[in-house]
From TrEMBL:
Name of the molecule in the record: Peptidase C-terminal archaeal/bacterial domain-containing protein
Superkingdom of the organism of origin: Archaea
Native species: Natrinema saccharevitans
Lineage, broadest ranks: Archaea, Methanobacteriati, Methanobacteriota, Stenosarchaea group, Halobacteria
Alphabetical list of Gene3D superfamilies matching this protein: 2.60.120.380
Region (Disordered), start-end ranges: 1-21
């Protein structure tokens, strides 16, 4: 397993609670077989992760995969066919602060 990308975000407490940030991602591995998307949020919060597998903009109501209600460290693992692109949404249900969003790819 080789981590391929990571990103950081910041909610400074001035309106972050209940807000969302969205990102796009396309695999970098030549022939990917799976991907794990994980989020590490602040210890005093409840952050959710939503994913689309066609690159479209996810919402809390329209997405392909979700890790919701799992506290500050939600994670989603997916098998890939090789031509996916992803839309990612980080949503803060409660709390604020810095978070890290990681995407790990595995090749065939």
């Amino acid at each position: 397993m080789e981590p391929r990308r990571g990103g950081r975000g910041l909610g400074d407490g001035s309106g972050w609670w209940g807000e969302s940030k969205r990102y796009g991602y396309s695999p970098l591995t030549d022939d990917p077989c799976s991907i794990t998307i994980s989020l590490e949020g602040p210890s005093r919060g409840d952050f959710d992760l939503y994913v689309t597998t066609d690159g479209s903009r996810p919402t809390r109501w329209s997405h392909d995969e979700a890790a919701a209600g799992s506290g500050t460290a939600p994670s989603i693992a997916l098998d890939l066919e090789g031509d996916e692109s992803f839309g990612l949404q980080v949503h803060a249900n409660s709390g604020s602060g810095e978070y890290t969003l990681r995407v790990e790819e595995r090749g065939r």
